[in-house]
Amino acid sequence: MLSKFLKTTKNKLQMLNSNNKDVEDLRIYQIIDANLDRAREGLRVLEDWARFGLGKEKYVEKIKNFRQILGKNHLEVYKQSRNHIEDKCKGLTHQEQIKRKTSEQIISSNSARVQEALRVIEEFSRLQNHELSKIASDIRYEIYTIEIDLLSYSQCKKSEEILKENDLYVITDQKDNLLEIIEEILIAGVRIIQHRFKKGTDQDHLQEAIQIKNLCKRYNSLFIVNDRVDIALASNADGIHLGQDDLDLKTARNLLGFSKIIGISANNEIDISNALKDGCNYIGIGPVFETATKKNKKPVGIEKIKTLTKDLNIPWFAIGGIKANKISYLKTNGFKKVALVSELMNSEDPKEDAIMILKELSHEN
User: Fold this and answer.
1) What CA–CA distances, in Å, run from 142 to 56, 126, 136, 172, 209?
2) How far, CA to CA in Å, does 12 sit from each of 18, 24, 33, 129, 135?
3) Which of 57, 131, 286, 321 is 20 to 30 A from 21, comparing alpha carbons?
4) 341 neighbors 173 (Cβ within 8 angstroms)
5) What is residue 90's predicted lDDT score, i.e. its pLDDT?
6) Could you tell me which CATH number the domain at 2-157 has?
7) Does pTM surpass 0.85?
8) Which of the residues in the chain have pLDDT under 50?
């Protein structure tokens, strides 16, 4: 049926005269041709970001398949129509195009480009090429979901970069002047804050979380909520940290989606293996030394942690009883990233102490 349509249309082009119907058909073919090009170009942008920006093979394959399907249905008659009626609007641009500064803006604008082009194809091919119209409709609805997924993975990727690039992870404790302490630490250069909830109502916890989130956003830092997935969602935190007795990682991921990072506390081979298998973004391992915050936990020790982490290919942070005067010793043993609680929460000058610790962590042994 499609080959018969193609032959008939070619004949129309060859026998073109002033007949209004023929001219209208040509304009429709031009519209379809132009929008097939637009859709495939936009898809290529999304495909390359999924491939090189995110490393998500599933999305690369899916988007590539859409491009191939549209290419297969980009009939010669559509391409030939370009040569018969001049496009007087060729080359027009819009100032909004030069304002795209982030990968998220590029993803959104090209997703919109694909969706709009496919809608045009769907409408104008409906009368003459039902198959192409349906293809355009099906792909268009798929792109709505793919756009959200790519944006979510891109946000998570940015958070993962902060985890990789920063070696000091600060966990809060109950303090009357907590927001002041956190801001001092952020000013010093700390880029990862985990908030633990102590006393108070859920309403109090949420308000506090929102305040800390806003502070962290101001300093381009990660805000991670301990345990409470509901508050992480409500405060738009960058992620969640879970212990072995908390909500399981898979359920947390289903609730949070792919835009958030999830960290796991682990101190043995099985828990670490399960965390990796379930897709955690980083691991907290400890306690390294005896600590007042985990009185019932026996220290894991330096040598055991070295064994547990020798093959880890995601960020991991040593935690538990770590003081500033032990960081050099930890670095000598290959520990590059540490998490601190009381050392900075109880400091008389958290900003200055944070600066000194950051310098110590960046110093090459």
Assistant:
1) 16, 19, 10, 42, 35
2) 12, 12, 17, 16, 25
3) 131
4) yes
5) 59
6) 1.20.1260
7) no
8) 15-18
Strands 192-195 and 282-285: unpaired
C-alpha 338/C-alpha 333 separation (Å) is 13
Question: Cα(159)–Cα(161) distance, rounded to whole angstroms?
Answer: 5
Give, in order, the Cα–Cα distances in Å from 160 to each of 1, 109, 163. Answer: 52, 24, 5
Per-domain residue ranges of the chain: 2-157, 166-362
- The reported pLDDT for the residue numbered 18 is 45
Q: How many Cβ atoms are within 10 Å of 94's Cβ, its own excluded?
A: 7
- 3-state DSSP assignment of residue 192: strand
Dmax (CA) for the chain in angstroms is 91
CATH of span 166-362: 3.20.20.70
Same fold, 2-157 and 166-362: no
How far is the C-alpha of 208 from the C-alpha of 365, rounded, in Å? 39
Which residues are registered as beta bridge partners of 318?
Answer: 285, 338
Cis peptide before 350 (omega within 30 of 0): no
Residue 93 in tokens: 């641009």
Q: 185 with 357: CB under 8 angstroms?
A: no
Q: Report the C-alpha dihedral over residues 262, 358, 235, 294, rounded to 10 degrees.
A: 60
For β-strands 261-265 and 192-195, DSSP reports them as unpaired
- Please state, in angstroms and rounded to a whole number, the distance separating the CA atoms of residues 335 and 327: 8
Identity at 138, one-letter amino acid code: D
Contact of 338 with 169, CB cutoff 8 Å: yes
Strands 168-171, 261-265: pairing kind:
unpaired
By C-alpha distance, which of 231, 278, 284, 221 is closest to 256?
Answer: 231
- Which parts of the chain are beta strand (E)? 168-171, 192-195, 222-226, 239-242, 261-265, 282-285, 316-319, 338-340
Q: What is the CA radius of gyration of the chain?
A: 28
Which among 342, 333, 238 is positioned nearest to 290, based on CA atoms?
342
